[in-house]
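It would be a great kindness if you could assist me with a short task in structural biology. I am sending you one protein, given as its amino acid sequence and as whole-number tokens for its backbone shapes. I would ask you to consider whether the tokens describe a fold that such a sequence might reasonably adopt. The full record is reproduced below for your convenience.
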Amino acid sequence: METGKRYTLHQLNTLVKNAIEGNMDFAYWVEAEISSLSVKAGHCYIDLIEKDPRSNTPTAHSRAQCWANQWAYVSGHFLSSTGSQLAAGMKILVQVRPTFHAAYGFSWNIIDIDPTYTIGDMQRKREEIIRTLKEDGVFDMQRQLPFSAFTKRIAVISAKNAAGYGDFCSQLAGNTYGFRFHTELFEAVMQGENVEKSIIAALNAIYERIDEFDCVVIIRGGGATSDLSGFDTLPLAQHVAQFPLPIITGIGHERDNCVIDLISFARVKTPTAAAVMLIDNLAATFDIIDSVRARVERFAKNAISTERLKLQSVTEKLPYLAHLAINQQRNTLQLISTKINGLSSLAIQNEKNRLLLLTEKVRNLNPELLLQRGYSMTFANGKIVTSTAQLRPGDTITTKLKDGKITSIVK
């Protein structure tokens, strides 16, 4: 074993430190992705990675830190420029200096940041998401949904203790019309790495009870001081775009729209504005109903007035009409009576003539008249003889003549 000068680990690391910091005494602008980020005692500690764009496999990794006095500027500058806080998954362009600590090893010391780089990357991601949604034919699905004129049952996705959620509920409850809304909170994380997963879980829970709600409202408190990156993911955008109920977003960010703002049924600036939209929707419905009620009332009044005038006219004409009807009936009865009298007299005369004719016929059929004319009638056993077949030899017969009778014996 070759022997030479020996170093302790600390001495060797010190040599490395001097070599690195002595030969790389410059500031470098580096492109990287934030793998993880934490802030402790005002200092920010970041893991930076670089990935193969084809396989997404990490090809480089390094630790970095931004000390408290510099972190206040870097984070504030980034937030005011992008509207978002630095978070894992973001691509950044930062200015760094190399540093090597004998106990902790190599890392980069962040001294500045270029927010425009991240804005460009965020915009590129948004554009990719939007392009995918349009290619899949779901980008406009939310805006094609019907919005009920009687929307009152609201599923709310928000953080439980968020100021925006409280403002939303207070605005609905205190509406000047006295409308009563039913709201139910589906709690979700509205900032940080778990936004996507949390909101998707809330949407799935609402879907299980979809018949109980008229729409969904996604709200949070804040504004430009809150992180929006969690709302710009493809899985979340796909869930929102294809959700079967209208979704209103009130993220509370006035500078810019996140992806779900662009694909939701309606986007408003604040949670309070979301409540105002729902109140105005019911108020518009109430105005329509009230207008229809007024028209129906006017129509009913006009109809009643018209019928009253008709009734009054009929009432005024009733005595004349009654008198006219009585006269008509009297004339009709008189005409009928005249006809009946005429018909009665004619019938009586006809009956008289028929009786006279019958009387004459009866009189002409009287046997006495026949005897007067020279005829005779023969009787046997009290019965008139009309045929020789009625007689037997030895029968006694009586012949009646005009002036007497003749008794004979049949031989």
In short: The radius of gyration is 60 Å. The longest helix spans residues 271-364. The chain is about 45% helix and 20% strand. The mean pLDDT is 86.
